[in-house]
Amino acid sequence: MRVNKRATDPFATKIKALDAEIDIPISEKLDDNKECMNQVFANCSDLIVRKVLIFGSMPALLVYLDVLTDKQTWDDGFLEPLMQEAATPITSIPQLHEQLRFGFSSIVQPAVILTMTEIAKCIVTGDTILFIEGSAQAFAFSLKDKLHRALDEPSTEAVIRGPRYGFIEKMDINLALIRHRLRTPRLKTEKLSAGSLSRTDITIVYIEGIAEKSVVEEVKRRISGIDMDSILESGYIEELICDHPYSPFPVIQATQRPDMTTGSLIEGKVAVITDGSPMVLILPVTFWFGFQSAEDYYMKFMFATMLRWLRYLFAFLAMALPSIFIAITTFHQEMIPTSLTLSLAAAREVVPFPAIVEALIMEITFEALREAGVRLPRPVGQTISIVGALVIGQAAVQAGIISATIIIVVSITGISSFLIPNPGMSQAISIIRFPLMLLAATFGLYGLGIGLLVILVHLVNLNSFGVAYMSPLAPISFTGLADTLLRAPWQTLKKRHKHTRH
């Protein structure tokens, strides 16, 4: 039997090796390097491969992605001095290397690259690669186009008093915003990457001597263990590294405010910055962190303490008020004063549905209107949220589908959820509200009590990177309570609270 043997394509072998991140040496021949680059970046219309004569005598090859390159810097600070003749003739590769290292401004200083794998990574991040005939080394010039938007105030974390700018999608700028507020060499930044295709840059930020080393090492271990094709946003990392991915409660805080991030770093927490995302992750956090705002520390302690208690009260109302209404009106009418009972009965006389159905209809409608308000353009979204709720509610009452009382209850519940500064905590409470309503409709206040007890047990058993989620209340720590249930005066906040570990 005759067997046809196909010739092995050396460039196809190189491409497979590059995908497997196996180091491949650079060829001394420009044509081989050009062919390899064309094969690796096949069907990439934005790849520029250009042969040039540098310093008037040396053949070279430039490779870069046009869409990622800063054209102004490329023309003026790189190409122009590269094409000028050298003051003294260059006759050897070492002389050329010396000229490349010292012949440019500090803006475009080159880095020496030894393998094709490193070259591929540099090109996709925006670097320009220079191959030289007869040299097994290449040079990478950082000429990335620094595209970024303005530093706007975060729409979901607006404050009356405090900084008016937030993080953006550029990781370098986000790091600069933190460095601007924490001017100390103890602020450490360690860069990692995740995603086999996206190769997303991730930076871990912490203050040496304040953040616990075990937490920092655990964060690095979990991020290094991520096995995915792409990391497009910090939400991927939040879900992949958190201790309890199936819990509705946020065990990692996401913020867009630099002041909130720097304050957390001073407390001993760790920040995770993802390139391409304006949301910075803060960890470890506790349950109470979800009710705290950066603005708490910019106002008088008495008013800040009152606001915190107001948030705790209305968070409970956002979670349990519909359930309490359903349980009392369905099973425990004797708890209602007589005059109020007559008013409720008159309002519900024409309503064909039980209280649980009324509440579910209005709660689902309210959540739909809130989601529509977020997705639509801002002016239209606000109009839809407010006018839509008024029109639908009034029309439903006039049609006898629901009672006016349930509209009041759902409105108070919706307003209460807006008092929670952390969107993740607000979403968790919104999710929990529905099973509590079903328990109240089935077993009355007893069902509601059982549901709240299950939630409390769940919270006590949660932890965030080894820190008890209900700390400093469970287990109790009186030093931590001064900045949890209260916002004590700055004169008394002299010791940094150490969270109790599970």
Any chance you could write out the topology, listing elements then pairs?
Blueprint lengths: L9 H10 L10 H11 L6 E8 L3 E8 L5 H13 L9 H10 L7 E4 L2 H9 L2 E6 L5 E5 L28 H11 L5 E8 L5 E8 L5 H12 L9 H8 L11 E3 L2 H9 L3 E5 L5 E4 L17 H31 L6 H10 L7 H21 L2 H21 L5 H15 L4 H21 L1 H17 L1 E2 L2 E2 L9 H4 L21
Antiparallel strand pairs: 1-2, 2-4, 3-5, 4-5, 6-7, 7-9, 8-10, 9-10, 11-12
Helix pairs in contact: 1-2, 6-9, 10-14, 10-15, 12-13, 12-14, 12-15, 15-16
Question: Quick gist of this model?
Answer:
The protein is α+β, with helices and mostly antiparallel strands. It has 17 helices and 12 strands.
Characterization of the model:
This protein is an alpha+beta fold. It has 17 helices and twelve strands. A five-stranded antiparallel beta sheet has the order 1-2-4-5-3, sandwiched between helices. A five-stranded antiparallel beta sheet has the order 6-7-9-10-8, with helices on both faces. Strand 6 and strand 7 (200-207) form a beta hairpin. Helix 1 (10-19) packs across helix 2, helix 10 (301-331) runs antiparallel to helix 14 (404-418) and helix 12 (355-375) runs antiparallel to helix 15 (423-443). The longest helix has 31 residues, at 301-331. The model is unreliable at 1-8 (pLDDT under 50).
